[in-house]
C-alpha cells in the first residue's frame, strides 16, 4: 500500500503538468527562422515563426541597414514595404509564410523584420543577405545619451463641435522618458506616426525643446493631428533613434455633422429646383385676354365688411327692399309692373280678349 501512494502521486503529476504549464507563446521572446540566409532578387524564401501571440496580425519585411542587435535603423523607411507580406498566427502563436526577395532602399546588412500590426508591440529579426545588393558598414553608435520610455503613453484631449462637422481630430501624446546614457540629451527629435488599419504609419518629425540629464527624466507632450474627416481605429507610434518606443491606439468617431449636412442638402436642393421650375413654367405658360388684363391690373378680391351692432342698441331696422334693374328695361317699363306700381294682369272684358258668346 505504501508503495502505491508514490506511484499515484507521480501519475497525477504527469497528468496535471501540461495543464499547469504556461502556454508556449508566453514562455519567451518571439522567434523567426528563414529557409535560406541568402537569395537574389526575384526569388523567394519561407519565413516561419513561433512564440507569438495567437491570432495576431504580423507584417514581414526585408529591411536594410539593420542587425538584430540594433534593430531597424531608420524604421520602416529602410524596408522594401511594397514587397512585404502579412500573416496571422495560429492558436499556438506560430506562422509560416513565403516572402518574395526584394532590394531594400538602403544598403545591407539586411534582416527579415517581423512585427505586430495591432495590439501590444512585438518584433523579431533574422539576418538575411540580398545577393547583389550593396553592403555598407552601419553608422557608428553614438555614445551620447539614450532615451527610453518610463511610463505608458496616453492621448489627452477631446473632440469639439468642429470635429463633429469634419474638422481634423487632434490630441496630445503624453509620455515620460528617462536618459539611460552617459551624456545629456538636448532638444531630442521624435518621430510621431499615425496609421489606419494595416497601412504603414505616416511619420512626422517633432522636436522637443529641453534637456534630459544622465539618469534624469522628463515629461514630454507632442501634438498629434489627423486629416479632415478621419474616423475609425488609428494607431499612434512614437519613434526615437530609429526604434519604435511605444504605440497608442486611438478610436476616432464618425463626423455625423457632415452626414447631416449632406442629407439636408439632398432635401433642400431638389425642393429649390422644383420651385424654380414651377416659376419658369408659370411665366412661360400662354395667357388669354382676360388673364393678361387681370395680370396687368392685379386681381382684387371683394372686401367683406362685418358690421356688429353697438352695445345697448336695439335690433337693426330692416332695410328697404331693393329692386334690381335690368339693363334693357327702364324702371317704368319693367315687365310685370304698371304705372301706378300695381301688378297688372289680362282682364276678361278686355276688347282684345275674345268672349265665349261672340262668334
Q: Briefly, what is this?
A:
The protein has helices at about 5-20, 160-165, 255-285, 290-295, and strands at about 30-35, 40, 45-50, 55-65, 65, 70, 85-90, 95-100, 110-115, 125-130, 145-150, 155, 170-180, 185, 190-195, 200-205, 210, 215-225, 230-240, 245-250.
Topology:
Layout: H1 4-20, E1 31-34, E2 38-40, E3 44-50, E4 57-63, E5 66-67, E6 71-72, E7 85-88, E8 95-100, E9 110-116, E10 123-131, E11 147-149, E12 154-156, H2 161-164, E13 170-179, E14 185-186, E15 189-196, E16 202-207, E17 211-212, E18 217-225, E19 232-240, E20 243-252, H3 256-284, H4 289-297
Provide a descriptive summary of the structure in words.
This protein has helices spanning 4-20, 161-164, 256-284, 289-297; strands spanning 31-34, 38-40, 44-50, 57-63, 66-67, 71-72, 85-88, 95-100, 110-116, 123-131, 147-149, 154-156, 170-179, 185-186, 189-196, 202-207, 211-212, 217-225, 232-240, 243-252. It contains four helices and 20 strands. The protein starts with a helix and ends in a 62-residue tail after the last helix. The relative contact order is 0.09. Mean pLDDT is 77; it is low at 5-27. A five-stranded mixed sheet has the order 2-10-9-4-7, with no helix packed on it. Strands 11, 12, 13 and 18 form a four-stranded antiparallel sheet that branches. It is of the alpha+beta class.
Amino acid at each position: 500500500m505504501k508503495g502505491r501512494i508514490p506511484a499515484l502521486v507521480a501519475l497525477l503529476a504527469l497528468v496535471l503538468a501540461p495543464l499547469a504549464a504556461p502556454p508556449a507563446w508566453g514562455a519567451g521572446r518571439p522567434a523567426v527562422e528563414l529557409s535560406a540566409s541568402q537569395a537574389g532578387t526575384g526569388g523567394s524564401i519561407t519565413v516561419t515563426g513561433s512564440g507569438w501571440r495567437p491570432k495576431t496580425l504580423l507584417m514581414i519585411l526585408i529591411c536594410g541597414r539593420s542587425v538584430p542587435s540594433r534593430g531597424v535603423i531608420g524604421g520602416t523607411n529602410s524596408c522594401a514595404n511594397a514587397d512585404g507580406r502579412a500573416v496571422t498566427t495560429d492558436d499556438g502563436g506560430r506562422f509560416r509564410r513565403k516572402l518574395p526577395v526584394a532590394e531594400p532602399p538602403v544598403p545591407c546588412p539586411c534582416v527579415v523584420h517581423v512585427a505586430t500590426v495591432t495590439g501590444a508591440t512585438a518584433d523579431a529579426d533574422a539576418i538575411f543577405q540580398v545577393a547583389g545588393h550593396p553592403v555598407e558598414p552601419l553608422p557608428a553608435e553614438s555614445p551620447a545619451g539614450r532615451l527610453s520610455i518610463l511610463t505608458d503613453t496616453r492621448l489627452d484631449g477631446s473632440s469639439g463641435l468642429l470635429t463633429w462637422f469634419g474638422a481634423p481630430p487632434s490630441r496630445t501624446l503624453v509620455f515620460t522618458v528617462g536618459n539611460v546614457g552617459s551624456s545629456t540629451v538636448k532638444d531630442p527629435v521624435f518621430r510621431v506616426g499615425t496609421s489606419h488599419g494595416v497601412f504603414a504609419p505616416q511619420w512626422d518629425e517633432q522636436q522637443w525643446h529641453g534637456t534630459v540629464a544622465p539618469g534624469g527624466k522628463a515629461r514630454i507632450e507632442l501634438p498629434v493631428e489627423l486629416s479632415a474627416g478621419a474616423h475609425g481605429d488609428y494607431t499612434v507610434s512614437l519613434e526615437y533613434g530609429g526604434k519604435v518606443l511605444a504605440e497608442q491606439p486611438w478610436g476616432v468617431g464618425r463626423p455625423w455633422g457632415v452626414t447631416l449636412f449632406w442629407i439636408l442638402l439632398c432635401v433642400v436642393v431638389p425642393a429649390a429646383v422644383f420651385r424654380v421650375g414651377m416659376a419658369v413654367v408659370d411665366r412661360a405658360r400662354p395667357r388669354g385676354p382676360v388673364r393678361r388684363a387681370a395680370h396687368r391690373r392685379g386681381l382684387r378680391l371683394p372686401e367683406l365688411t362685418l358690421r356688429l351692432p353697438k352695445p345697448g342698441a336695439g335690433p337693426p331696422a330692416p332695410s328697404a327692399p331693393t329692386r334690381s334693374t335690368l339693363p334693357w328695361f327702364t324702371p317704368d317699363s319693367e315687365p310685370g309692373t304698371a304705372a301706378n306700381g300695381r301688378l297688372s294682369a289680362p282682364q276678361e272684358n278686355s276688347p282684345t280678349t275674345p268672349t265665349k258668346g261672340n262668334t
